[in-house]
Design brief:
Elements: H1 14-31, E1 33-37, H2 38-55, H3 60-70, H4 73-87, E2 95-102, E3 109-115, H5 120-126, H6 142-163
Antiparallel strand pairs: 1-3, 2-3
Helix pairs in contact: 1-2, 1-4, 3-4
């Protein structure tokens, strides 16, 4: 029975699962975006986000704890360096999961998991969002000015014709 076991075991032994999540987290930190199955991405999100939160405070203790999870000096340098520069002010939600469809061979649901502030396309779309104003159906500006102008123009041409 699986009473109280709330995380996905991903069909692996504990040591295999731990090693796989460590490798995937290292790849995510170094490459900023990886493609994987949805189940693995959801578990990776729970694995990586506490590490990013811990990296906000750069201390020897936090670096050693992060190293015990990741086992890669390059990933630790990237995590405590460039990643914290971008996501240091964010209160949480450091990763984004984007579903990409189904895998051809076994129809597994695939997705892309990425670090939020490293996607330039999404950042460009988010900035130019400007405030919209409500507009009424009545024409107020141009139509009101154009209506009196036409009879005035006709009156001036009629007076010109009378003078001739």
């Amino acid at each position: 029975m699986r009473h109280g076991k709330k995380f996905n075991h991903l069909g692996r032994t504990a040591s295999h699962r731990k090693a796989m999540l460590s490798n995937m987290a290292t790849s995510l930190i170094l490459h900023k975006r990886i493609s994987t199955t949805l189940a693995k991405a959801k578990e990776l999100k729970k694995f990586v986000e506490p590490l990013v939160t811990r990296a906000k405070e750069d201390s020897t203790h936090n670096r050693r704890i992060a190293f015990s999870y990741l086992k890669s000096k390059d990933a630790i340098k990237a995590l405590f360096g460039e990643i914290i520069e971008k996501v240091g002010t964010r209160p949480g939600g450091y990763t984004r999961i984007i579903k990409t469809g189904f895998r051809l061979g076994d129809n597994a649901e695939m997705c892309i998991i990425e670090l939020v502030d490293f996607n330039e396309l999404m950042l460009k779309d988010a900035k130019p969002a400007k405030k919209t104003t409500r507009r009424s159906r009545r024409s107020t500006g141009k139509a009101a000015d154009a209506a009196p102008a036409a009879p005035a123009g006709e009156a001036s041409t009629e007076s010109d014709n009378e003078e001739k």
